[in-house]
Design brief:
The protein is of the alpha+beta class and about 100 residues long. Helix content is about 40%, strand content about 25%. A three-stranded antiparallel beta sheet has the order 1-2-3.
Amino acid sequence: MLQTEFEFTLPKGYLDEDGNLHRIGVMRLSRAMDEIVPMRDPRVKSNPAYATVIILSRVITRLGALEEVSPTVVEGFFLPVTSVISRSFIAKLMN
């Protein structure tokens, strides 16, 4: 059976407005629509790098105790996040 969700740990995490640090998350495999939808977003049209933020917000299904992982939440991740998530995700796909 194909594993479609993977746990990850953010090195520095995300600090919410109440001061809670969220580091452990779950992300699912991306689908074509996860990469198509951001291309319609005006933020991506003015800054193509913003597509990564939207894609991550779509595929991260859980992060700590947060109810939702929105683009605003992803914007607040302490760096370097995308390279760590990508390496972790790719490594799990290879196993």
